[in-house]
Amino acid sequence: MGIFEYLGVLISVIMGLGITHLATGAAKLIQYRDSARLYLPHALWTINVLLFILLIWWGMFWWSEHVSWYAYQYLFITLYAIVLFLLASILYPWDMKEDFDVREYFLKNRVWFYGVLFLAWCLDIPETVAKSSAGLRPVPPAYSWFVGIHLAIAAVGAMTRKYIVHVLLPIFFSLAVVMYVVMSSLGYIASDI
């Protein structure tokens, strides 16, 4: 077992727990559908956070080519995984009741949710730059606008309680991710030709 595989186990467990928490929360809402009050922005963010964790988990694979590991790198990547777990954990309470009001819960915790989302993107910047500096993956050309959009989404979400804004933010988040993945994929395809 190489160093990355050893480190990857802990990161995988932490991110896997985040995915498990999202799936468990969504399953409880399905079970309590007759009494729980649902909230569209919350459902959209559940999907987005799931995809966010999966994409970051996929992006961590670039580190498999890294040979010389230092404790600060390991701690940083583990911190990033923990932040993603926190993001998932904030969306659902650990002890959900049958008459759970998702809207009230989301709005009550929105500053924390969007604050942790902001922190996750702030951690993504040095992680992406470190991969580039280590020669593992160049920083994609669209990366700066991509991160800027997501930091703006997190800031706006933390500042407002307006329903329409909270519906639009996860939609913008998803659109930005799709555009970035497509543009990055095309960029890598074009550079290989």
Portion in helices: over 70%
Shape assignment = globular
Q: In this structure, how is the largest beta sheet organized?
A: none
Distance between the termini: 35 Å
Instruction: Give Rg in angstroms.
Output: 18 Å
According to DSSP, the number of beta strands is: 0
Mean pLDDT: 90
Determine the oligomeric state from the structure: single chain
Structural description of this entry:
The chain has one domain. Helix content is 78%, strand content 0%. α2 runs parallel beside α6, α3 packs antiparallel against α4 and α5 packs antiparallel against α6. It is globular and about 55 Å long. The C terminus is likely disordered.
Helix-strand layout with pairing:
Blueprint: H1 3-31, H2 40-60, H3 71-91, H4 102-133, H5 143-159, H6 163-192
Helix pairs in contact: 1-2, 1-3, 2-3, 2-6, 3-4, 4-5, 5-6
Nutshell version of this structure?
This protein has helices at 3-31, 40-60, 71-91, 102-133, 143-159, 163-192. The chain is mainly α and 193 residues long.
